[in-house]
Amino acid sequence: MTIPALESAAGPDADGKPGTAPRPRRMVQPAFLAAGLGLVGLAAGMAAAVRGSDAADPLLTYAVVMAAACAATVWGLWLTVDRRLLRAAETLSREAGLIAHGNAEGAVGGRVPLARYGDLVPMARAVNDLSDKLAQVRRDIAHTVAESTATAEEQKTRLAAVLRDLHEGVLVCNTRHQILLYNQTALDILHLTGDLGLGRSLLHFVVAEPVTHTLERLSLRVREGRHLSHEHGTTAQFVGATTDGRILLEGRMSAILQEPEAEPDGPPAFGSPIITGYVLTLSDATSELAALGQRDALLREATEGFRAPIANLRAAVETLYDTPDLGPGERAAFESAMLESCDSLSQRLERVTASYRNVVTGSWPMSDIHSNNLITLVAHRAGADQPAGHPLAVTLTGLPQWVHGDSHSLVLLFAQLIGRVHGLTGATAFDLEAAGPQDGDRWVYLDLVWEGAAVPSATLDGWLEQALPGGLGGLSAGDVLQHHRSTAWSEPLPMVDGTPRARLRVPLPPAQSPRSAHPRPRAGARPEFFDFGLLHQPLATSELGRTPLDRLHYVVFDTETTGLSPSTGDEIIQIAAVRVVGGRILTGETFNMLVDPKRPIPPESIPFHGIGDAMVAGKPTIDAVLPQFRGFVSGAVLVAHNAAFDLKFLKMKERAAGVSFDCPVLDTMLLSRMLLGNDGDHTLDGIAERLGIAVVDRHTALGDSLVTAAIFLRMIEMLRERDVRTLDDAIRGANILVELAARERAF
């Protein structure tokens, strides 16, 4: 009797070793095998006895038949147990383990498909119930926090509605801030008599920094092409003031774009549009912000001024306890009255303090900001603020997020904090990352990370009291945090290679209308591709192959195409990639280019990627883009999800582009199969959902690259638990899976 092979060539055992079956199946299989072989041997012995006897014994013949039947029954029972229970239990344990690694952040409950588990449905349902309860608890917490902010959000909405209805002044300027056109309302708002004077600089009348900062924001947005899909397009809000400081202004800047011009008799020009000027709309916010400042002063007096009287009142009460001259009745009445007054005053103080915070937070003009743009501006500002010869490097890391705030004041805040940390610790290299909501809360965290000691609380409190250079009206770092209903703290992080690390964390409100809240409909998931010649790789037998996975330099990439078949004429229309170094997603080091396929994009493929013919018209062709992409990935290990699909398109264009993609490649789809088994959900969306990874800009080449990078970093931790530690280990495991898939398809 033959017992089917139980172990998956790439499946890990209970000790985390790849290539052997889990311990329970190693124990059950020999038991069934011994029973089956014993019965077969018994039947064979009895059959020999029957043949050797002169007279056939009916009982002996019956025993032979029964032994053979029992052996067949054991074999059938083993097949049932193996297929209905043991394999399903092994898959369920892997899926439960994947769910256990997920849900570390966010409030997404992982799901185990019940239909796949047959007799083990109660166990699968129990896993889903536990995941759902965890997700429900986090949703309840988020709902409670949202209700507590309803009043402030209502005030903010009313203020925005009033501002939209105001008559505004309009000015048109070029990029040198020279005034080209203005209306009478602009003169009235600036409180000027006569003419502004065409050709004069706007910066003679308005404080320069808010205007130049806003133009820099728009320039970055247009240069990266984000104005085509950005919620506010080519406009941005800001708060400024007249140069004499008497009038505070609320403004909106709209960029004037000009497409790049081609050379005479030359090829069509392609590239980002050029900003040739801007339209500025201004409204006088002096009375509103001045009233806010007055309320700030009054409320600050009410909150801080009450503390001393309360302390005196309580001291008087304590003194009365030490005075034995009063009679018992008078003493009791006096003490009761004093304590009642003290409690009333304390409650009043808390109410005034809460109202003060609501007014400050609800009144300050804010907008939704993409964290990558904010951090890029912080890095530029931090470098510009340092003297020559003392550069500070700020690296953008992590997944992008959307926050709600005042971009200008936040840039000033973080630039000052970076300078203060540098002065205290001597650190010159910083990572700045936006981390999504954690443990069910609603905040987005901006984390400033450096090598060195954490900032003491008393020192940080002193920094927050200091005025920000360039801040309007003497704005302090603490004021900026208060406007965002936020705070800041510093804490040590785990050491890396014996080097101490620390971070300074600032929570910010999430965006009110983030781009990810309105995802483009997805027509369906990309099918899995197994090109066995591309997926089966030689081991990297050099030092690279022996390098631990967490120490390698990766480039995670994705492509968007006109269709699914490169051999029948489908072409690449977008390539995007992001670097991963030292366990960090370097969001500031990306490659993202649209490609002219030189053929129409089929309408049925547009729902997959949202790219139409107009978006790729005039863009460079694939033979011009691939050399640039090859230079970007030089020296790195490539990572992709369903990598065979993307590699097929790249390989077919290597000769035309004069490049070769011969670097090692890791496929997160194959790694998922190594961790979960063949029966799991290995789509990018399915894995991200189970790991609780919330992402921004999904279903674009760059967005998918960022999702894949986040999944890959989580997988490195999980692979280490399975004793897959080096690049060669990962390639070896992937090759086994590819070989198994090839054999399955051969049959």
TrEMBL record:
Q: Which GO terms describe its biological process?
A: DNA replication proofreading; signal transduction
Q: Does the keyword Ribosomal protein apply?
A: no
Question: Which keywords does the record carry?
Answer: Exonuclease, Hydrolase, Membrane, Nuclease, Transmembrane, Transmembrane helix
Q: According to its UniProt record, what is one Pfam family this protein matches? A: RNase_T
Task: Please report the stretch or stretches of sequence annotated as the HAMP domain.
Answer: 83-139
**Which InterPro entries does the UniProt entry name for this protein?**
DnaQ, HAMP_dom, PAS, PAS-like_dom_sf, Ribonucl_H, RNaseH-like_sf, RNaseH_sf
TM ranges: 31-50, 62-81
Q: Which reaction does it catalyse?
A: DNA(n) + a 2'-deoxyribonucleoside 5'-triphosphate = DNA(n+1) + diphosphate
Family annotation (SMART domains): EXOIII, PAS
Q: Which PROSITE patterns match?
A: HAMP
List, in alphabetical order, the Gene Ontology terms for molecular function in this entry. 3'-5' exonuclease activity; DNA binding; DNA-directed DNA polymerase activity
Spans annotated as Disordered: 1-23
Q: What is its EC number?
A: 2.7.7.7
Does Transport show up as a keyword for this record?
Answer: no
Q: Name one GO cellular component term.
A: membrane
Q: How does it assemble?
A: DNA polymerase III contains a core (composed of alpha, epsilon and theta chains) that associates with a tau subunit. This core dimerizes to form the POLIII' complex. PolIII' associates with the gamma complex (composed of gamma, delta, delta', psi and chi chains) and with the beta chain to form the complete DNA polymerase III complex.
* Function in brief: DNA polymerase III is a complex, multichain enzyme responsible for most of the replicative synthesis in bacteria. The epsilon subunit contain the editing function and is a proofreading 3'-5' exonuclease.
Q: What is this protein called?
A: DNA-directed DNA polymerase
Task: Record the organism.
Answer: Azospirillum thiophilum
